[in-house]
From TrEMBL:
<keyword id="KW-0963">Cytoplasm</keyword>
<keyword id="KW-0206">Cytoskeleton</keyword>
<dbReference type="GO" id="GO:0005813">
    <property type="term" value="C:centrosome"/>
</dbReference>
<dbReference type="InterPro" id="IPR040045">
    <property type="entry name" value="DYNC2LI1"/>
</dbReference>
<dbReference type="InterPro" id="IPR027417">
    <property type="entry name" value="P-loop_NTPase"/>
</dbReference>
<feature type="compositionally biased region" description="Basic and acidic residues">
    <location>
        <begin position="304"/>
        <end position="316"/>
    </location>
</feature>
<dbReference type="GO" id="GO:0005874">
    <property type="term" value="C:microtubule"/>
</dbReference>
<dbReference type="GO" id="GO:0005868">
    <property type="term" value="C:cytoplasmic dynein complex"/>
</dbReference>
<keyword id="KW-0970">Cilium biogenesis/degradation</keyword>
<comment type="similarity">
    <text>Belongs to the dynein light intermediate chain family.</text>
</comment>
<keyword id="KW-0243">Dynein</keyword>
<protein>
    <recommendedName>
        <fullName>Cytoplasmic dynein 2 light intermediate chain 1</fullName>
    </recommendedName>
</protein>
<keyword id="KW-0217">Developmental protein</keyword>
<dbReference type="GO" id="GO:0035721">
    <property type="term" value="P:intraciliary retrograde transport"/>
</dbReference>
<dbReference type="GO" id="GO:0045504">
    <property type="term" value="F:dynein heavy chain binding"/>
</dbReference>
<dbReference type="GO" id="GO:0005930">
    <property type="term" value="C:axoneme"/>
</dbReference>
<dbReference type="GO" id="GO:0035735">
    <property type="term" value="P:intraciliary transport involved in cilium assembly"/>
</dbReference>
Length: 354
């Protein structure tokens, strides 16, 4: 006859807690290896800068990239070994460049901030828009992460509200401002960039190295025209999405695609900004970040924001045009304007009794 346990549910639960507390870190790691992980990777960056192409290559999907409609979601899965559950990567992509930066609040939430990473894709072929795109998008994402973390800490939520902290030996740890979650910066369209004047290439490369180091980010250059270069980019994204080993690629040669994992660069290796025809003393910079910005924008003046229209409504963006639908919409807009004019006339001609 089988032995009947007289333990209550509370006795069993207490015994399980004691068992977990007595386990070593190695035993915890071994147990965790049997459970799937879920991470979130948020792609954002230059409009039509190649984000979708990088995402499709990462997912190993052989299909043509299509313009991203505002904000899109997909996912990837990867098994760590034989007969083990597959880890899941939730992948968000923000379209429209800086015009739709308000949408960062959707993919950055209390549910995923503890497992969130950001991939910022910057179009190397358009350096005049590079700094503004980088600064505006990272500011929006940072603000949302800090807001979510502050809310979790304030409410005492069991989900982690702690932001990323660099280890004590990280180069220039006291002089930089690390992004609150792991960050990868991708310089896209290297195939076009490599034909730039060598001095301009040096300015862009050195500036992006500074930006990546300042934010505690990894930096990689990419090109859809080279499978070898795309493969390196994929390994960096893999690390964020599935926690794979740190990529071994490393290159700081401006004539080749850059590949610098976070923590492999330093202000000492970077040196001062490239200033062939600029006197740094006349720039009146408030801090190193502001100095690098001023030097970069002397070489690559930012686009005229008055001439560049930021389209908040994707329906008015030419890249999403649908001739048949757009013609019907235009007709309805005309009918609406006609209706408004007729109503305005009727109100003006209406005689009211005193």
């Amino acid at each position: 006859m089988p032995k009947i346990s007289s333990d209550t549910l509370w006795d069993i639960a207490a015994a399980e807690v004691r068992s977990r507390e007595s386990r070593t870190e190695e035993e915890d790691a071994e147990e965790d290896a049997h459970f799937p992980t879920q991470r979130t990777v948020f792609f954002m960056g230059s409009k039509a800068g190649g984000k979708t192409t990088i995402l499709l290559r990462f997912l190993d999907r052989d299909e043509a990239a299509k313009p991203t409609l505002a904000l899109e979601y997909t996912f990837g899965r990867r098994a760590r070994g034989h007969n083990t559950p597959k880890d899941i990567a939730h992948l968000w992509e923000l379209g429209g460049g800086i015009s739709l930066s308000d949408l960062v609040q959707i993919p950055i939430t209390a549910d995923n901030v503890s497992s969130l990473s950001v991939v910022l894709v910057l179009d190397l072929s358009k350096p005049n828009a590079l700094w503004e795109t980088m600064e505006r998008l990272l500011d929006s994402a940072r603000s949302q992460v800090e807001k979510v973390c502050a809310s979790l800490q304030k409410t005492g939520d069991s989900r982690s509200g702690k932001q990323r902290v660099l280890h004590k030996d990280y180069p220039d740890r006291e002089l930089i401002s690390p992004f609150p979650v792991p960050l990868l910066i991708v310089g896209s369209k290297f195939d076009i960039f490599q034909d730039f004047d060598s001095e301009k290439r040096k300015v862009i490369c050195k500036t992006l190295r500074f930006i990546a180091h300042f934010y505690g980010a990894s930096l990689i250059f990419s090109s859809s025209k080279s499978e070898a270069v795309m493969s390196k980019s994929r390994s960096f994204v893999n690390q964020l999405a599935f926690g794979t080993e740190r990529p071994k690629s490393f290159s700081t040669d401006p004539s080749k695609p850059l590949a610098i994992p976070a923590g492999f660069d330093s202000l000492n290796q970077l040196g001062p900004p490239v200033t062939s025809d600029v006197d740094i003393g006349t720039l009146h910079a408030k801090n190193p970040f502001d100095l690098w910005k001023k030097v970069f924008e002397r070489v690559f003046p930012p686009e005229n924001t008055k001439e560049r229209k930021e389209l908040k409504d994707p329906a008015k963006d030419p890249q999403y045009s649908e001739p048949l639908i757009d013609s019907i919409r235009a007709q309805k807009d005309q009918e609406l304007e006609q209706y408004k004019r007729e109503q305005a006339k009727s109100w003006k001609s209406l005689a009211l009794d005193p």
